[in-house]
Amino acid sequence: MRSEKEESCGERNVPLSVPCLQGNEWRYIKECLDTNWVSSAGEYVNRFERMVADYTGARYTVAVVNGTAALHVALLTAGVKPDDEVLVSALSFIAPANAIRYAGAWPVFIDADPDYGQIRPDLVRGFIERECVNKNEGLYNRHSGRRVAAIMPVHILGHPVDVDSLIETVRAYNLRIIEDAAESIGARYKGRCAGALGDIGCFSFNGNKIITAGGGGMVVTNDEQWAKRARYLTTQAKDDDVEFAHNEIGFNYRLTNIQAAMGCAQMEQLDAFISKKREIARRYTEAFQEVPGITAFAEAAWARSTFWLYTIRVDAACFGMDSRTLMRHLSSSGIQSRPLWQPLHLTKAHQGSQYLGTGTAEQLQRLSLSLPCSPGLTREQQERVIDCIRRACR
Ligand SMILES: *Cc1c(COP(=O)(O)O)cnc(C)c1O
Q: How far is the CA of 139 from the centre of ligand 1 (A)?
């Protein structure tokens, strides 16, 4: 087993971001098999929930089958109703916008700031003050006539959004704050954990995230009633365990014990992975100071980023090649890199949705490239990536 793994580490190909499974994963999963606790209940599910609660400081945690399910349940728990609107980051993986549609609500996309790529609180304020009317029962969008129920900031790339500014902006209007921290477990905002800063938060443990359970998600909140509601909805809304009575339509969104076992083993390593990733980020940033036309996404003064995906911006005129050409160039050397997501208001899936912004998300998408940054990335591999970029510069 070990020698195979070592061999694959020595391969020429450098992947963007792959899991690092060198802890207690085998041992904990084997224990599930040995004890016959393999499905959607078991001690590892409870333990995983406790570990995430302890780590993030959230009082209650509900493990679910993936991050998208976590977002869906969080929206329902927060009281988002069909035909409501939810403000959401324009520059993000598509999951949060899809989850808003699963709840029957509509996304209103907010542009990114140019420095960190996160949702812009000033645009949210402008939208509320200029484009909404505040009636007794809530905030209404003048343009669509719909109720604006919540905001779903997405902490992208392992860096937190400016949460205090958002809270200050939306509190007076009673908007719920549902954090999508799928990419940012362990990221800190003024010392506190992303995902545990708003009314309810969501994490993902998909294979491409900083830690993985194979697949998995978590809903976190400090509100006991909300936690109960979330758990109820994820377990088919069962009202009587013996008679199988159900008063509502729920979902089967539970995480299995096997996945939770892997999640526990990964949680044990989260801080080590973050240190590793921050070290990788530091080395890249240092190296790129001497490469004209390459700039890294900055880390805000109030932030401690995990650098889940280390991302650069390529100024084609200065560097001599645009981001996509550089991507192909890296690829021909066996180095995987990836652009950011198509801004969500430009996707066909969400066409016709309202968008507030000045095109920064599009610009960042055009310029940006995420570079290899697995916790297991070796110095030698990283040097190859840096060399390849240095040599591509004219
Ligand atoms: C990965 C991701 C999700 C979805 O998580 P899954 O576990 O893959 O369902 C949600 N939001 C963002 C921003 C993500 O990057």
A: 28
Give per-residue pLDDT as tens, 210-245. Answer: 999 999 999 999 999 999 999 999 999 999 989 999
User: CA-to-CA distance for 203 and 197, rounded, in angstroms?
Assistant: 13
Asked if residue 61 has its Cβ within 6 Å of ligand 1, the reply is no
pLDDT in tens, 320-343: 999 999 999 999 999 999 999 999
Atom nearest to 208 CA in ligand 1: 1
CA of 156, closest atom in ligand 1:
13
If you take atom 12 of ligand 1, which residue's CA is the nearest one?
182
Q: How confident is the model over 123-182, as pLDDT tens digits?
A: 999 999 999 999 877 999 999 999 999 999 999 999 999 999 999 999 889 999 999 999
Alpha carbon distance 143, 314 (integer Å): 37
CB of 276 closer than 8 Å to CB of 378: no
Cα(193) to ligand 1 centroid in Å equals 18
Ligand 1 pocket residue status of 212, Cβ below 6 Å: no
Q: With a 6 A CB cut-off, is 183 part of the ligand 1 pocket?
A: yes
Task: Please list, residue by residue across 151-169, b when 16 or more beta carbons sit within 10 angstroms of its beta carbon and e when fewer do.
Answer: bbbbbbbbbbbbbebbbeb
- Phi first, then psi: what are they for 63, rounded to 5°? -75, 140
| Four-point Cα dihedral 56, 105, 168, 183, nearest 10 | 30
